[in-house]
Amino acid sequence: MSKTEAPQDKTGAPEEQNDLGAAGAQLSTAPVDRAMPGSFGGRRAPGAAGWLVWTGREIVGWVRWMWRQLTSMRVALLLLLLLSLGAIPGSLIPQTGIDELKVQDFKKAHTTLGPVYEKFQLFDVYSSVWFSAIYILLFISLIGCIVPRTWQFVGQLRGRPPGAPKRFDRLPAYTTWRTEAEPEQVHDAALTLLKGRRFRADLTSRQGGAGTPSVAAEKGYLREAGNLFFHISLIVLLVAFAVGALFKSEGGKLVVQGDGFSNTLTQYDNFKSGNLFNTDDLAPFSFKLDSFESSFERKGPEKGTARTYRANVTYSEGVDGPEKKKSIEVNKPLEVDGSKVYLIGQGYAPTITVRDGKGKVVSTQSVPLLPIDSNGTATGAIKVLDGYRDKNGKKEQLGFNAFFVPTFAGHGQGNMFSQFPALDYPVLALSAYHGSLGVDSGLPQNVYQLDTSKMTKFKDSKGELLKKRMVPGETMKLPNGAGSITFDKDIKRWATFQISQQPGSMWALVGAISAIAGLAGSLFIQRRRVWVRSFRGADGVTVVEMAALGRSESAKLSEELGDLAAHLHEETPSAPDPDPADHADSTPDVVPAEGAEK
Fold first, then answer.
1. What confidence tens digit (pLDDT) does each residue in 472-503 have?
2. Which of 167, 173, 185 is CA-nearest to residue 15?
3. Parallel, antiparallel, or unpaired for β 475-478 and 455-457?
4. Dihedral (C-alpha) 343, 345, 346, 352: value to the nearest 10 degrees?
5. Which of 256, 258, 295, 553 is the most buried (most CB within 10 A)?
6. pTM to 2 decimals?
7. Among 336, 332, 298, which residue's Cα sits nearest to residue 312?
8. DSSP H or E run through 376
9. 573: how many CB neighbours lie within 10 A of its CB?
């Protein structure tokens, strides 16, 4: 069929639009703007009273218009984009709530940018005024978008499919044929066919419609349901993120083999939490590191690559809960009462025994050393705070810089390094000091570094700093009968754990998955309507008309109508042509659905 320009009625509106009427309405629940800024007040009556009434209408109109803009899909998407862009500086710039020291270092290194970033709250992005404003506006926009659409959608589900338009040939997909079947038979066959295809179908006569009876059917409600589901899922996602940010807690702890951890604030090496978190909400549990297992690739290009990291722990829930065994691996945390214990690092802790000049054991400790490369090379400090006295009986503190390699290499080259991360040939290098460690000053110290500003070097026979490389079981004697330090054969392992409490994380996951499912439904499901009308023609033969209308133009609409028409034509075949000359043509007299021709 060829299309012609739609004529206009007396009002100037296209006749096609008036012909469709309710048939082309409410294919979505998106609100329609019926007025534009500047037209809210209407015609102003003369006098002060007229001005007040006009001003009131203008104000109310502007408020409604701004609310409509805020709750529109385009503004919601814009706010979502702004929220994503606003999170970028939170990932690139050090944040006060995460690492205060990095923030201070950044300000010292960038004297110009530092004050600018601080003015715009870029060191506290997620608690800044502008980020919170975007977050709240997005939340309001989504709620304001969902509530009216939901009620409108419920009303559409409870209603009936709209009646047929006057002119079927004005619709995007249209077909017609003549049949000897009665109009009632056509309607019944159409109802059976459409309901079998999961359309909501009904006769216009049952709806109280006037004019020629016809079958009205509608399908694709899941499109709008998916759209609403997507918006609701975004709200769930935003609420889950907000709850997680406000009530979360996260801390780290280094545990040496044989030692344990109890989930109290004083046990953490570092700890951070949300603004509304209460330390009383820490889940009561404890665990002990029984052993740490690791294995590494021995050959090939991936030599030294870790194959197994496993921390074997004994844990208990509550104050006096029964002990249980658990192996914690990477991405396989221990979950206890809403908290998760992740394995995030490991290393070696050489056992050191220090004796005074009389041979008395002053200290025996397994000292964790921090790895500095992938082969297990580690550095640290050994500190003896109490119990040591020099040969004159004077109290003194000892300090040793430590350098450890699990598999020694570099002999005869003037340096030492590790060539494999396993304990194949462990060597410990120490340099010795005595005096004051500075721990009594009240200032915080790095436990892995030695402050030698108030200490004196132990010197060897050449007057140089006393230092020695030792294998397990060897001892380094301190000069002038000051004692000794022994590298014991018991080399323990240590592991670092991250203890996290993230309320709302499961809801965030559910919201994210639901949002994707809802978005897929709103994108790939098409809302469409089909009408079937049959009536007696002037020659007494029944005329069948079928037409379809979708929310958007799609070739599938014509294909679907063509398929429906083919099945309905089997039930109500074309009437024979009254002209004998054309009767031999066995081709069904069916006009193909418009837009489906090739």
1. 999 999 998 899 999 999 999 999 999 999 88
2. 167
3. unpaired
4. -110
5. 256
6. 0.67
7. 332
8. none
9. 15
